[in-house]
Amino acid sequence: MRVVVVSDSHQDFFSLQEVMKKHPKADLYLHLGDGLREWGQIQELYPERNFLQVRGNCDFSSDQPLEDCLSVGQAKIFYTHGYVYNVKYGLYDLIQAGKQRGANVILFGHTHTPLVDYQEGIHLMNPGSIGAPGSSGPTYGIVDVTPQGIVCFTNTLTY
């Protein structure tokens, strides 16, 4: 199963649409917050696809949850925007929250910096920012869950 993960689109509808075009057969598309308005527009364009989302600190009018969990094969994924766990200052609180939920994959955004790591038996991934990137350009993430294992990686969006 393939999960495409985006975060921090900050009104960049065009980049979200490019990700959708590059990955038309993904099983799930997940937005980690700060851009749910344009994410709703993407959902209207692709009603046949599966979408999930959580709100970020800039999604002021959203009633979406701050965090959630889902099971995908052998992966139990805890996902959040990350600001509630102070991810700009370290990952300890986030990892503890994931452990409490029995997660073996934690997805978060907020920092705009891509990260793929493995700590304490948990895959960690921040897809970076698709809409307000730093010097690395717009980035997004992929989580592949297969019978052989879990693989997380980030990509730089090229047009």
Tell me about this structure.
- Helices cover 18% and strands 33% of the residues.
- With 159 residues, the protein is of the alpha/beta class.
- It has one domain: Metallo-dependent phosphatases (Purple Acid Phosphatase, chain A, domain 2).
- A five-stranded mixed beta sheet has the order 3-2-1-9-10, with helices on one face.
Please outline the helices and strands.
Blueprint (H helix, E strand, L loop, with lengths): L1 E5 L6 H10 L5 E4 L4 H10 L5 E3 L13 E6 L2 E6 L11 H9 L4 E3 L7 E5 L2 E5 L12 E8 L2 E8 L3
Parallel strand pairs: 1-2, 2-3, 5-6, 6-8
Antiparallel strand pairs: 1-9, 4-5, 7-8, 9-10
Helix pairs in contact: 1-2
Give the class-level CATH name: Alpha Beta
- Annotated CATH architecture: 4-Layer Sandwich
- The CATH topology is what? Purple Acid Phosphatase, chain A, domain 2
Task: Indicate the mean pLDDT.
Answer: 96
Number of helices: 3
CATH superfamily: Metallo-dependent phosphatases
Which radius of gyration do the C-alpha atoms yield?
Answer: 14 Å
Distance between the termini: 25 Å
Query: What is the general shape?
Result: globular
The strand line-up of the biggest sheet is: 3-2-1-9-10
Question: Helix amount, in percent?
Answer: 10-25%
Question: How many strand units?
Answer: 10
The count of domains is 1
Specify the biggest β-sheet.
5 strands, mixed
Order of helices and strands: EHEHEEEHEEEEE
Q: Poorly predicted ranges (pLDDT <50, ≥5 residues)?
A: none
- Helical/strand content category: alpha/beta
